[in-house]
Design goal:
Radius of gyration: 18 Å
Order of helices and strands: EHEHEHEHEHEEEEHEHHEE
Strand content: 15-25%
Helix content: 40-55%
Number of helices: 8
CATH class of the largest domain: Alpha Beta
Structural class: alpha/beta
Number of domains: 2
Distance between the termini: 27 Å
Strand order of the largest sheet: 2-1-3-4-5
CATH topology of the largest domain: Rossmann fold
Oligomer: single chain
CATH architecture of the largest domain: 3-Layer(aba) Sandwich
Shape: elongated
CATH superfamily of the largest domain: Response regulator
């Protein structure tokens, strides 16, 4: 998952669209405040930060990320309309892994993102996620049970990925709506129930892995 902090909605949406089109999971945030709320729920694979943000600026976010024990190794790309050498140097000195000066092309952005991920990723245990006979190959974006591929929609896949990377954690419907459909989605929590239902039906013998916590929401249970 790549988190993009960008206050311009047109640029933010284009970045998210391009990243997803390249097969990468991505979420966008208009400010540091909403980014930190999401960070508390799910840690991303990479963070892209615009320097000029309302409220807390991008360099402050970068400082905090590098100061935290649980985030100091998360790769960060700084983006900014400022073209001065000073901004680039400050960002890199604070620990950014790369810098993109606006305006930048989406192909260049994808290339930079992939390059940083190649440099910073160690062989990770989360590239293939397993729970019993259920397996998710993150690189290939596939889900299988006993080797048989299970076709999922994007939202079903994102829900399952969230559960598999946070086993045992209970999510309310509001949590799931925010994390999977984004904070600005104007929908009802019933949307979550419908997608959980279709996901369970596709998982067949593994459907019981996604447990209902009565009066709260859902969680991923033990191996089946």
């Amino acid at each position: 998952m790549i988190y993009c902090i960008e206050d311009d909605p047109a640029i933010r949406n284009l970045m998210i669209y391009a990243l997803k089109g390249a097969g990468l999971e991505a979420r966008g945030f208009e400010s540091a405040e909403v980014f930190w709320s999401a960070w508390a729920e799910v840690k991303p694979q990479m963070v892209m930060i615009d320097i000029m943000l309302p409220g807390e600026d991008g360099l402050s976010v970068l400082r905090k990320l590098r100061a935290k024990a649980g985030s100091s190794q998360v790769p960060v790309i700084i983006t900014s309309a400022k073209g001065e050498e000073y901004d680039k140097v400050i960002g890199l000195d604070l620990g950014a892994d790369d810098y993109l000066a606006k305006p930048f092309g989406m192909m260049e952005m994808i290339s930079r993102v992939r390059a940083v991920l190649r440099r910073t990723e160690s062989p990770a245990p989360f590239r293939v996620l397993r729970n019993g006979s259920l397996e998710m190959n993150v690189d290939e974006h596939t889900v299988s049970i006993d080797g048989n591929i299970i076709p999922l929609t994007l939202k079903e896949y994102e829900l399952l990925y969230l559960f598999l990377t946070n086993p045992g954690r209970v999510y309310t419907r509001e949590n799931l709506l925010s994390l999977v459909w984004n904070d600005d989605y104007l929908g009802e929590t019933r949307t979550v129930d419908v997608h959980i239902g279709t996901l369970r039906s596709k998982l067949g013998e593994c459907a019981g892995l996604i447990e209902t916590v009565r009066g709260v929401g859902y969680k991923l249970g033990g191996k089946r």
